[in-house]
Amino acid sequence: MRKKGKTPVTLPVEQTTARPPDIWWDHQGHRPDTLVNQRVDYQYKTIKKRTIYWERPLKVPSQYKFTIHQRIASLHWEFLEREPIEVNETMVQEFYANYQAWEANSVFLREKMLDTSNQALKAILNIPHIPLEKDEYSKIKVDVFNGRVSLTPILKRIGRPGASWEYSKGRNFIPASIAYSDLNTEARIWHQIVADYIIPSTHTTHVRFRTALLLWAIMQGKHIAILPLVHKSIWKLVEKKNINIQFPSMVMCLANAAGVERRPIDIMFRTPRGNKFIPRGDLERSTNTIPSKRKTPIAPPSSLPTSSIALPFLRPLPDLFRDILHDIHHMEHLECKRFEWIVTNLEGRDPGPIPRASSVLAAEKHDAVDHPTHESTS
User: Fold this and answer.
1) Which uninterrupted H or E stretch holds 179?
2) Per-residue DSSP letters for 118-162?
3) Which of 61, 73, 132, 337 fits 355 for a cystine, CB–CB 3.0-4.6 Å?
4) pTM beyond 0.70
């Protein structure tokens, strides 16, 4: 039953428009024609301090040249054999500062929008399209982590005789890495290629397990979709602050395709053609002669020739302390003589030559001869 009285009035509720929060880094920066907002402006300052990871020319040892080039042809990775191009360091730094999203399809660079989609990267690198469902590297990675594939054939293909996996403490199912010295020569060549063009890395002592799987897939001629790996490496660089700038040649190809103009203040660099592709050791030698990381054992002292040993002369401690005290006394005496010389000069008299260490030392020796101590006469 309705109560008596006035009918309650329902006041209209004001509908507020949902607005994004006003964040300072989304505001326009100081150089809107170069950096899109203040967050990019701040990020550019940190990127300028990083080192650019230059791609090196592909130079393979003679006995492996046919095998490596044949594998490159079967994978259609001819971009590995291109000549180095001139790189604009300033432009590359601005590109990574403006890169703000995972797998971004476009990146702002000097009033131009660079097409960074998969189709554009495929055209730049001239690689075939491999859908994810046909990516055999991703499939073998899932099978390994699910325990459906044995790791012994993988280790036998990429490792030297006697090589072994490295496991983390408390985790014995999936290896953590493999020592670089345990890789065979072909695997070490491919590791350097991957580190320069696909997954840039400066680790030269240990190779991560995922990278080792990638080396095995390459050496087996599997179908590999490398664009997701490239996008992941780019985004990893943007997120972390301790990674070198990667893929400078690819960035320059994208900028040239978009018609980005160079400025007079830009810093230019061209990769030297004389650089050796494999910097670690001489791959022309047998893998059995690779230097080990273990220290060379030292022969016992009895077996060493005594004529080649130069033992240092050890002075007795009393003589050492006596010489130290003598030097201190000599310095104090020298400072007193110099102070007397300054006072005499200020009084207007002729102080003579400035007391020096040699003259004071000669005077001390003369006094010691004329006035011998009681210890010396006894």
Assistant:
1) strand 177-179
2) HHHHHHHHT-----GGG-HHHHHHHHHHTT-S-SHHHHHHHB-TT
3) 337
4) no
